[in-house]
Every structure is written in C-alpha cells, then in structure tokens.
Amino acid sequence: MTDASRFSGGHCLPRNYAEELLIIDRGSGVWLYDRGGNRYLDMGSGIAVNALGYGREDLAEIASAQMRKVIHVSNLYTTEPTLQLARHLADAQIGAWNPDFGAVHFGNSGAEANEAAIKYARVYAQRTHGPQKHKLLGFHNGFHGRTLGALSLTYTPKYRTPFEPLLPGCVFAPFNDGAALEAALDDSFAGVIVEVVQGEGGLACMTPQFAESLNRLCRKHKVLLIADEVQTGLGRTGNLFGSEAVGLHPDIVSLSKPLGGGLPLSATLINRRINDVLEIGDHGTTFGGGPVTAAVALRVWQIIADPAFLVDVRHRASHLEHCLRELARRFDFTGQPCGMGLLRGLPVQAAERRLPDVMTAILTAARDRGLLLLRSGSNVIRIAPPLVISEREIDEGCAILESSLRAVATQFKGELHE
Ligand code: PLP
Predict the structure, then answer these.
(1) Are residues 287 and 149 in the same domain?
(2) What is d(CA 49, CA 61) in angstroms, rounded to the nearest whole number?
(3) What's the CA gap between 39 and 29, in Å, rounded?
(4) What's the pLDDT at 351?
(5) Which of 143, 248, 265, 287 should be mutated for ligand 1, with most atoms under 8 A from CB?
(6) C-alpha angle with apex 206: 217 to 338, nearest 5 degrees?
(7) pTM of the model
C-alpha cells in the first residue's frame, strides 16, 4: 500500500489543518477504512461525535426517507421531527433533578450552541436586571469553541491570542476551586460557563463539591449557570447528562457532538424563566434543527436516553478504566488515567520542550498500527470511542496503544518521565 493512497498531499484545505491527512473512505461499527483499504479502530469517534458507530443502516434509512419528504424549510416554518425532538429535549431531567427546560434552540455545532447560550444569558440578565449585569465567567483550561463569543470564554492562549481583542467582560477562574469562584463571582455577571469534564483541556473532572459551589453561588448572585455538555452530554459519561454525575444544576445546557448521529446539529436547552423574557427575532438560524438532522437525532435520542443503554456504557467505561490503569502501571512515563465514562485520558510525562514531539509520535505510532486516538491539552492521550464499542474491541485498542507506547519509549529513550 503506498502512502499516496492513504494520505492527502498538497491539499487545498487551509494551513490550520495538518499537511498530511488520512483519507477515510468508509466506516463500519467502530472501524474506519482509508482509501488504501487499511482499517483503523476509531477510539476518537470523530472527536466524540460517532456515539453509535459507523455504517448505521437505521440512521441512513431515516435520513433518506426524510430527504425525500423535505430537506430544508428554514426557521420561518417548522417540521414534525424538529418539534418532536425539541419536546424530548425540553422534557429531559438531569437525574432526579428537573431543570424545567422551557425551550430548545437548535444550531449546527458546539460553538453555535454556546454562542446561543451566551446570548440568552446576556439578554436575560439585561431584561431582568439591566445592562450592567453582562459579565461572563469561564474556567482555566475550559474550551467552548472557536467562534468569537465562544472563543472569548475558551482559556488556551494559543487559540485566543491571534484573534484578540475578544468579547469584553469575560474573565476566568481556576477550575474546581470553590474559594476562587466565591472571590470571582458577583452580581455583575450574567452567566458562568463550565464543562463537567474538560474535554479539550486535559480531562480534569468537576468535583461534586465544586458543582455544589457553582449551584449555590450562581443562585446567590442571580447568575445563569451554563453547562457546556457538547462533549459530555448524551451518554459519554455513562449518564444522559454529565451534570447528573456531579450534581450540577444548570439553567442552560449546550449539546452537540453525538446529537445528530454524525450530522451537524446542536441544541441549547434553556429554562422556562429565560424563555419567558425572549422576544421574536432575539436569535435565529437558517439551517439549525432542519428536518433531516432532527429526524436522525430523534432515533439517536431514543437509543441513548434508554436507561439500559446507559448501563451498558457504564460497564464498558469501567472496563476501559481498568485496562488504562493496567497500562499506566507498565510505563513509568504515563500518569494516572483521568476522565469519566467513555471519555478517558492517559497523561504522558516528558520534558516540556519535547512533549509536542512525544505526543505526536504516540498518536502517529498508534495510527500506523491501526488505532485512532485524540489528544487533550498538551500531554493527555484522549480516548473517546463510540459508545457501542465492545469489551473485546477495548482490549484490542489498549493492546495497540501499549505497543505504540513501547515504540515511543524506545524512540525517546532517556527523554521521557520528567
Ligand atoms: N464545547 C466543548 C466542550 C467542546 O468539546 C467543543 C469541541 O470540541 C466545542 C464546544 C465546540 O464544538 P464545535 O467544534 O462543534 O464548534
């Protein structure tokens, strides 16, 4: 197999993407196949999107049937799948807690879901308290997307600085630090945005104590609590919402990645109080929540919201956790596994100046052995397989990861473990 049949060369995609990209031809279950016929166990799910795996005939049937009926109507009109999906999402409970969602705004991406969340927080604060209540709080290592509003609450300087100045009134506090939150928050804030697991920022998990501080302090200062569940939502943590796992009580929830079964779709769930202050034209979208994506999402929701499905995810997650713990014990340059559910990380220790090369070498070695992985932050190998992965496939993935780590340990002999 020549490399030319596997990789793009001299492509016309912008230079913010890698020069050499794998050319994927098709997928089936948890496997992807490149143009050269090589197969890969996908433990990244297209950045935590393909929860139900590839090649789903049920989703393809639903999409094609809906495409024959009507593909697009805009938000001047609506369709039955869109209305049904909104109803299911608005009726959702977060564990035993009823968030009283009054409405759902559909969009096309995680960043768009958060743009809507930020706008709803601002409009609610302005209409109920006045324009001085407009500030927004995010957290160290938080990631909320690359559009300018969401980017303003994304912490990593590499993503932000080339595009400054960003939205005014955005500040950051340390994650999982109740005292720092207490010091940072006051009545001038409209919203706080937070992830239950920092998916892009190193896979730190929110503690239940911090969730309790967020609930309490946001109520005290009448600040809307936004849970960015773009990555943690819809089964990824073993719960329907990650917020359930830690006892977070958000007023707004952003969902996206798995929602459309691989089609672009996001949803911003807002509580009834927020919905009550909205006026026609406050926000809108041309494509968001169209009938095809909504019809597919209805099926995705039906599968993932089934408690029996979530029990299976939790079993697979504890198997993955066990395998990663075993793996971490075999290498002195890997730290304790982190993350939650089927969103897990394995930290890598190396001299800071060598970390980017070491991380790239690990992901490349895995890819060349038929395993696709992600990274999170600067030093964490991120594992976010389709939720339907079997225990045997998890074992297979971990065996490939082990052989990749061995190869990299040899390649960087003497430079790892700092
Ligand atoms: N929020 C979180 C928590 C994410 O993990 C991501 C993407 O990784 C986003 C927002 C942005 O989503 P998108 O890339 O679909 O805009």
Answers:
(1) yes
(2) 19
(3) 12
(4) 87
(5) 143
(6) 170
(7) 0.97
Encoded amino acid at 338, one letter: C
Q: Does residue 281 have a pLDDT over 60?
A: yes
Number of structural domains in the chain: 2
Query: What residues line ligand 1, using a CB cutoff of 6 Å?
Result: 47, 109-111, 114, 143-145, 195, 199-200, 228, 230-231, 256
Mutational pocket test of ligand 1: of 47, 231, 343, the residue with most ligand atoms within 8 Å of the beta carbon: 231
Residue type, 210: F
Q: 222-252 pLDDT, tens per residue? A: 999 999 999 999 999 999 999 999 999 999 9
Tokens 């809507």 identify what position?
116
How far apart CA 176 and CA 41 sit, in angstroms, is 34
For residues 244 and 95, state if they share a domain. yes
Q: What is the dihedral of CA 46, 47, 51, 56, to 10 degrees?
A: -10
User: Is 417 inside a domain boundary?
Assistant: no
Amino acid at 49: V
Q: Ligand 1 atom 1: the closest Cα is on which residue? A: 144
- Tell me the per-residue pLDDT of 154-184, one tens digit each, with 9 for 90 and over: 999 999 999 999 999 999 999 999 999 999 9
Structural domain span for residue 39: 4-56+309-411
Angstrom distances, CA of residue 161 to CA of 39, 77, 111, 158: 38, 40, 18, 6
CATH number of the domain bearing residue 114: 3.40.640.10
- In-domain check, residue 324: yes
